[in-house]
Write a structure and sequence with these properties.
The chain is an alpha/beta fold. The protein is built from 16 helices and nine strands. Helix 1 packs across helix 2 and helix 5 runs parallel beside helix 7. It starts with a helix and ends with a helix. The C terminus is likely disordered.
Length: about 375
């Protein structure tokens, strides 16, 4: 139940027992339990309460009904039956020490990472963490927090792998060391492709190198009329992608296939081919931060060459699988947009967009296949 539902339930409950201001009393109870100012309650109307919070509210309601007393009139002995020891100070100190530990071990976003780890172990959203620090953290939970902190600090394991999931385009995705971690830059690729696909009736889309399925799943979710096929050479990655398809409930319009680029692709009528291929040059790969180099799959990061192998091959072969006027869309490395554009032009694509990421780097290149009319013009 969400906070607004709990408010309504509590108000109705107190009405039955003839409380003169049931809404006010309900607000007092809930603001007390959630450690929020009463006037701010409705800003959190969509918040999901955990079982412990709901039980506390129920116990207050029963105590008030039993004694026919308002919340403010409840005697201390009644409150003590409901209240537990407030461990906020102790828990905040533990959190602060955890932040300092990560910081000393050169974890860049030490505060954010510590908060995510605590929230994960305590099974609350990170944004709601500080509302849930009153409860005593059990020895088992402390040991789990300690273990995750060690792996983050000493083993340099990425936070996303420690948590086992990450958000992409507002959707949940399972991630582990079989797949790359979905990144915000790729959301730009998805957004640009959405603009185009929304103008096409029942678009047909091919995602080359789907990995976790982040691009495929998101487009299938955002454009229910689309038919999407995600392809990858890695069986391990495809297993993760299938799980993410199920998590996001897009099994009806999304399929996955094992394919080395186009090796197992049969159809030739796609409206769009999308790819975020391995594009880090081998020499740059060797200099990557340990979180990436030691844990994310090498084959999804680098082509073990100059970083252009997949762009060139996909550009050269895409036309056979696209409709006339079909689109080819790439995510590219920080200095690759110009060279990739040249590959695409040589393969018969008109470059219609080069889009910057949030840092102002050219991150997405989109081309449109020349149709028969365009070829005739050239001749």
């Amino acid at each position: 139940m969400k906070l607004l539902d709990i408010l309504k339930f509590s108000e109705e409950y107190l009405k039955k027992y003839s409380f003169s201001k049931p809404r006010l009393e309900s607000e007092k109870i809930i603001s007390h339990v959630l450690n929020l100012e009463r006037i701010t309650l409705y800003a959190y109307f969509d918040m999901e309460l955990n079982l412990e919070q709901k039980d506390k509210i129920k116990n207050y309601l029963k105590a008030m009904a039993r004694n026919r007393l308002t919340f403010d009139e409840l005697p201390k002995e009644e409150i003590s039956l409901v209240e537990e020891k407030d461990c906020s100070s102790e828990n905040r100190e533990l959190l602060q020490k955890s932040i300092e530990y990560l910081n000393k071990n050169d974890v860049k976003d030490s505060k954010l990472d510590a908060e995510y780890i605590f929230a994960h172990v305590l099974k609350v959203k990170r944004t709601m963490l500080f509302m849930n620090l009153r409860k005593e953290i059990t020895l088992k939970e402390k040991e789990e927090i300690k273990d995750l902190l060690y792996k983050r600090a000493k083993e340099k394991k990425p936070l996303q792998y420690l948590l086992g999931e990450w958000e992409f385009y507002g959707l949940p995705f399972k991630v582990d060391e079989r797949v790359l971690i979905p990144r915000a830059d790729t959301e730009i690729l998805v957004e640009q492709c959405k603009f185009i696909l929304n103008e096409i009736d029942n678009p047909k889309v091919l995602d080359i190198g789907t990995g976790s399925g982040a691009i495929s799943v998101t487009l299938a979710k955002e454009i229910p009329s689309a038919m999407v096929l995600g392809a990858d050479i890695s069986t391990d990655a495809l297993e993760v992608a299938v799980e993410n398809r199920k998590i996001n409930n897009v099994e009806s319009n999304l399929k996955f296939i094992k394919s080395d680029i186009f090796s197992n692709i049969k159809d030739n009528d796609y409206d769009m081919i999308i790819s975020n291929p391995p594009y880090i040059p081998k020499d740059e790969y060797e200099e990557l931060m340990p979180e990436v180099k030691q844990h994310e799959p090498q084959g999804a990061l680098t082509d073990n060459g100059d970083g252009y192998y997949f762009y060139k091959k996909i550009s050269e072969e895409s036309s056979k699988y696209l409709k006339d006027k079909g689109y080819l869309a790439f995510e590219v490395g920080y200095n690759q947009a110009h060279e990739v554009s040249q590959f695409m032009k040589k393969a018969g694509f008109e470059i219609i967009a080069i889009v910057n990421d949030y840092s102002g780097i050219e991150r997405v290149v989109i081309g449109r296949k020349s149709g028969e009319e365009d070829v005739n013009k050239i001749s």
